[in-house]
Design brief:
Oligomer: single chain
Number of strands: 2
Largest sheet: 2 strands, antiparallel
Structural class: mainly alpha
Radius of gyration: 21 Å
Bound molecules: protoporphyrin IX containing FE, 2-acetamido-2-deoxy-beta-D-glucopyranose
Shape: globular
Distance between the termini: 67 Å
């Protein structure tokens, strides 16, 4: 009983620290009569709203006047695409993460190679791995038809991540909008900021802190691995030679490990894939955390949340495994926080017409 009370208190302390750092800035409109709802420039492509009024935050109603149907358009494309390929929900959720951790949530991940920069698409964590670019293109072309030069590619990524979560059975949340698009990609930062699958817990904590995200965000956002797949190359080390002594990872449950070896032979098969949550790979739920409790986390970075000897993350894995609504609630908060990493607003950046390339002058 005392243990239970201790745990409950501890949980409140952990989660409340995250609530106070909840990155949605005080929702105060300072715009008086100045928002140009009449001339259509409010929230539009010229950035006059954020720029003129000096408001640099994001807010959910950003497109209420300039493109009220934006989310409906995103959702209708997602519904079709995810019905045909349920994994696409996972791929789009991940795309927003890989965008936000590199230079902020500015759609830099969507840029193809150009004379001015090397794209992020061939960086280690992305190469032969991230997918969903055609879906973003399809959404963008529908949005350009409905509301030309208005909805940024960075906001499309955020809307697609939320929509994909909802359509997979996960939580919904109010999504701050108004991000603008980068005119540069950052190949190097992709390699440096995105955590590798064999990360230690310390490494994960460090890379999340670098983005202003804490241990609660780390554990809840890792819960995105409740959907989607990973290639053998992302976890093979665990099956055959985790620590350079030709032994499997001792934290990996044996029968699960043997099953994985059939998908991932010792040599070859590096691009074969296996679900991150084998019990419900297309369903957003809390089984990801239950699997970790049973030694069935697929990646090292999943299992170390429990076995990495950091009390706080260990505790949160257990709490989320026991209480799915606690996980949903925190996931939504942490997604908003991740979505607020270093956005371009005001006169910074641009509204790309084509998500793969910067606008021509
Ligand atoms: C905590 C550190 C993280 C690490 C080390 C990590 C690593 C990985 C790796 C290695 C894969 C498989 C890639 C492949 O083999 O092709 C993957 C897939 C995935 N990741 Fe993460 N990830 C992390 C956090 C996140 C976060 C924060 C999100 C989103 C909020 C996320 C969403 C996903 C999704 C949905 C997939 C499946 C994608 C698909 O099936 O196309 N991950 N991750
Ligand atoms: C993680 O994997 C990389 C690439 O395979 C390897 O160079 C590195 O040593 C591994 N790190 C750990 C901690 O095992």
């Amino acid at each position: 009983m005392a243990f239970l009370i201790y745990n409950t208190c501890m949980l409140m302390v952990l989660l409340s620290s995250s609530v106070t750092s909840f990155a949605f800035p005080g929702f105060s409109f300072g715009w008086g009569g100045g928002g140009g709802a009449g001339d259509g420039s409010f929230g539009g492509g010229d950035g006059s709203f954020g720029g003129v009024l000096g408001y640099s935050g994001l807010f959910p109603e950003f497109y209420s006047f300039s493109c009220p149907q934006a989310n409906d358009i995103v959702m209708s494309v997602l519904e079709d695409v995810i019905a045909k390929d349920p994994r696409m929900a996972a791929s789009l959720l991940r795309l927003h993460f890989h965008d936000c951790f590199v230079q902020g949530c500015d759609a830099s991940v969507l840029l193809d190679d150009s004379a001015m920069f090397t794209s992020e698409k061939n960086a280690g964590p992305n190469a032969n791995s991230i997918r969903g670019f055609e879906v973003i293109d399809e959404i963008k072309s529908k949005l350009e038809e409905a509301c030309p030069e208005t909805v940024s590619c960075a906001d499309i990524l955020a809307l697609a991540a939320r929509g994909s979560t909802v359509l997979s059975g996960g939580p919904n949340w109010e999504l701050p909008l108004g991000r603008r698009d980068a005119t540069q990609a950052n190949f190097k930062e992709s390699n440096n900021n995105l955590p590798p699958p064999n990360s230690t817990i310390q490494n994960l904590i460090t890379l999340f802190r670098r983005q202003g995200l804490d241990e609660v965000d780390l554990v809840s956002l890792s819960g995105a691995h409740t959907i989607g797949m990973a290639r053998c190359t992302s976890f093979k080390q665990r099956l055959y030679n985790q620590d350079g002594n030709n032994q499997p990872d001792s934290t990996l449950e044996r029968t699960y490990s043997n099953g994985l070896k059939e998908i991932c032979p010792k040599t070859g098969g590096d691009s074969n894939i296996s679900p991150l949550d084998f019990s419900s790979p297309a369903r957003f739920d809390n089984t990801y955390f239950k699997l970790i409790m049973w030694g069935k986390g697929l990646l090292t970075s999943d299992q170390v949340l429990l076995n990495g000897n950091v009390e706080e993350t260990m505790f949160l894995v257990k709490a989320f495994a026991e209480d799915d609504s606690l996980f949903y609630d925190q996931f939504a908060r942490s997604m908003v926080k991740m979505g607020n990493i270093n956005p371009l607003t005001g006169f910074n950046g641009e509204i790309r017409k084509n998500c793969r390339m910067v606008n021509q002058l």
